Amino acid sequence: MRRERRNGVIMSESYAVNEKRELILQKVKEFIVAHGGIVKKNQLEELHIDYRRILDFVEKGDLIRIKSGYYTIRIGDYSEDELIVKLFPDAVLTMECALYAYGYIKRKPYGYQIAVDKNTSKSRFKLEFPQVTPFYAEPETLQSGVDRIDFGNAKMQIFDKDRLICECLKYEDKMERAVFQEGVLSYIKDEKKNIANLMKYARERRVKLWKLLINKDMKKKDLCEKAGISPASVTKMGRNGHVTTEILLKICTALDCRVEDIMEIIPDGST
Question: What angle do CA 64, 108, 39 make, to 5 degrees?
């Protein structure tokens, strides 16, 4: 066995190797802490350390690989919210997760729903914890109607309330019925909602807002009073029945919207 002398003390080769390993590990840990507790593989390359070292640290339990290419020291140091912020800083909270953040639903959803650029690699979401459900959006629409909230001791992007409801309407089939209704009804009761913004986002996202008013008797009475129409007319529309142009114009005036926002033309013979 080879030995070397250091400060008058003879050390074995294995001891020297272990000491070097610990020094490198300490350097890596300090780097991770200095960069917020979670780093990417390409960030670690700044240390000019053989990547096989990093893999060895992970195998020995000295580092934790959260997902492919992301490393930390102790996973227990972070809440799920903090992990989401650190792993997906470019994402926008949406759907049930955002409804809960606004207090529109009472039950905290399982996992996280985030809106991301449609060109985002799907491999980003292959992680065991926390569970993430991506909703892919066109890059030009992703930043429309985005706010920031306190989330996991940091700031996270979230769709504003009006844009969020449009997203829920667009992806209604991906939600539990009870959760969808609770969220939309809470929005309707919210005195700070902005109907003008809601209409704008609906046009951008091609969402028929008529769903918002006729879905399971949601505020039909209010619409009748504001538009000066009878409940029977609202019921007809809800059943795809025939109504006069005058009725449609009254509804559009009351809602400050266009006809195409509340109805669509289906050619004869279409199924």
Answer: 20
Q: Which fold has domain 209-271?
A: 434 Repressor (Amino-terminal Domain) (1.10.260)
Output the CA torsion 253→257→259→260 (10° steps).
Answer: -170
SS3 sequence of 132-161 = EEEEEECHHHHCCCEEEEECCCCEEEEECH
Q: Is 228 within 8 Å of 238 (Cβ atoms)?
A: no
- For the chain, give every residue range classified as CATH 1.10.260: 209-271
Supply the CATH classification number for the domain 3-77: 1.10.10
- Residue-wise pLDDT for 70-117, tens only, equals 788 776 667 788 888 888 889 999 999 999 999 999 999 988 999 999
Residues of the chain with CATH 1.10.10: 3-77
Task: State the pTM of this model.
Answer: 0.65
Q: CA 232, CA 235: separation in Å to the nearest integer?
A: 5
- Per-residue pLDDT tens over the stretch 112-146: 999 999 998 888 887 767 789 999 999 988 989 99
Backbone angles phi, psi at 218, to 5 degrees: -80, 105
